[in-house]
Specification:
This protein is of the alpha/beta class and 310 residues long. Strand 8, helix 4 and strand 9 form a beta-alpha-beta unit. The chain is globular.
């Protein structure tokens, strides 16, 4: 496992992180037993993964609880990122709720601090700090309850708004082969020493290569229209060249993201040991420069102005 600088926190994070949305999440995924979830976190640590991304609303709070249980007496080995804005009770971005939300996360995680906290996809008009969110975060940082703060967003426009008006230490942004728009703000984030966490790295499963034009979807993935499914399936076929005997589509998709030095870590979801080990294997090699350029050209030529959803 390779490690990268986590902004100005003084921490180093594994370039392959652990997306913990699935832990305890019976609402959106097939049920995972608690003991299995704990074992999976322990296996990740053994493989060199030290970055764990969670949130109060993941699994109705169960993700944080299971992560806290798994990291009991192992806290010093982990870098934990959680969020504010969505909770089991609903959505509330009021700055007055930040402290209470973080205190509750600390209890579930069984820790007295978290390495970073993100405002979880807030409305655009909250990004410039006029409602006092960043000041509350600064207070919590001064108290040692958080080491860094920032936002989780989906576009370069949102990234630039935050970078212009605030001093975030970290940002979680959507970025993958099929969604490269946010790269426009990567250089500025680097100049301001903002650690970038990359979410949705496999484009909700499409970049694993397991879906095709005849695939059907339910639950959280039922949002795609038949037309979008066909378009996505054709794009997947255009990137099959990434696969070979040693490289799966998933590994190549993660290596595409890690080809950007501005990125601190990428957080694919993890549901079982096989997925975990495939994710971790992406850190073993780099994406060839020619393949990187080919994927960037594909985005500019055929994807950038299409509406694929996410």
């Amino acid at each position: 496992m390779k490690y990268r600088r986590y902004g100005t926190t003084g921490k180093q994070v594994s370039e392959i992180g652990f997306g913990a949305w699935q832990l305890g999440n019976k609402q959106d995924w097939a049920s995972m037993e608690d003991e299995e979830a704990v074992r999976l976190v322990h296996e990740a640590l053994d493989l060199g993964v030290n970055f764990f991304d969670t949130a109060p609303n993941y699994g109705q709070g169960k993700s944080e609880v299971l992560l806290g249980k798994a990291l009991e007496r192992k806290r010093e080995k982990a870098v934990i990122n959680t969020k504010f804005g969505h909770s089991p009770e609903g959505t509330d971005y009021s700055a007055a709720q930040i402290r209470n939300s973080i205190e509750r996360s600390l209890m579930r995680l069984q820790t007295d601090y978290v390495d970073s906290v993100l405002i979880h996809n807030p409305p655009f008009d909250h990004l410039d700090g006029k409602y006092g969110h960043y000041q509350v975060m600064e207070d919590l940082k001064a108290e040692g309850k958080i080491l860094a703060y920032g936002v989780s967003v989906d576009s370069s426009r949102e990234m630039l708004e935050v970078l212009e008006h605030a001093r975030p230490g970290v940002m979680e942004v959507m970025f993958n082969i099929f969604y490269q728009e946010t790269a426009q703000a990567f250089q500025l984030a680097k100049e301001k020493e903002v650690a970038l966490i990359i979410k949705v790295p496999l484009d909700s499963g499409w970049l694993s290569g397991k879906y095709q034009g005849t695939s059907s979807f339910s639950g959280v993935r039922s949002r795609w229209s038949p037309e979008v499914i066909q378009t996505r399936a054709k794009l997947v076929e255009q990137i099959r060249f990434l696969e070979d005997e040693q490289t799966t589509m998933t590994m190549a998709a993660l290596r595409f993201i890690l080809a950007y030095p501005e990125v601190a870590t990428v957080i694919p979801g993890v549901r079982n040991s096989a997925q975990l080990r495939e994710n971790v294997a992406a850190s073993d090699a780099e994406l060839p420069e020619a393949a990187l350029r080919q994927l960037q050209d594909l985005w500019e030529r055929e994807i950038r102005f299409k509406s694929l959803g996410w």
